[in-house]
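User: Show me a protein chain along with its predicted structure.
Assistant: Here is one chain, sequence first, then structure tokens.
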Amino acid sequence: MITSVRAPNGRELMAAGHPAPAMDPHDFPTSGLTGWHDCFPTIAAGEVLDVGGRRVAVGDHGDLWHCSWTIEEQRPDSLRMSCRLPELGVRAERSVSWEGGSLVVESAYRLERPSGFPFVWASHPLFEVDEESWIDLGDQESRSWPRSPNGMRLGETWPAIGGRRYWRDVPMGTARKLFLAWPDGGVQFFTVGQLWRMDATFDGAAPTTARLGLWINRGGFPAGEPLSHLAIEPTLGDADTISAAAAGGTAQTLEFGRALRVRIILEPLMG
């Protein structure tokens, strides 16, 4: 997990979250709802996979956020680490580095035995937001999760003004996940007094399944002690569950001998 990213102006980009005295793998809010995780092999809670004829229950938001990571290499401007998910037979690797003033996050997933399975994947940074924060999403339509008979659209949740969607226009109490096509050239957004661009590339996955997931939470989650944050998520699949993504044709399959690789660049911009 990436716990802190400082903007060039010194302000913290990652949302503060709640204290997390004890983590329950099947209850993601016990993570403290802060930092930058990868979600794999699912995002939603309660998923059970068939892995080589065995039924394997996976955690809420996947199993990476609560696994034990081993530091493989550490330098002043970079960190490389790995972990194993033995029930799934997967080795995960992650590196974080600064390159030319940009934060680069690279992830790789490999099967260690020939028992493939379907999955969805998301990078899940919880960003700090304030009344001046905005994101430029163009005029994209979106799908929403959970799906409703009428299908909530982006404009109904977050109206645009001059192409920008300002956080102050999100209704208080909103907690909604939306999916859009991953935009060419990445996503520009403004928060903590800084303009940013996020872009992602995928290797080992069908490019047509790349999505932009938006978790928009303005005082709507969790119950009792709600927080406000925005997750801008490079995503494979257009749903939080594997079954729903498979029904839409966007679930992936991790295959033996073929790694999934993702490279994300978070770049502070002048403006």
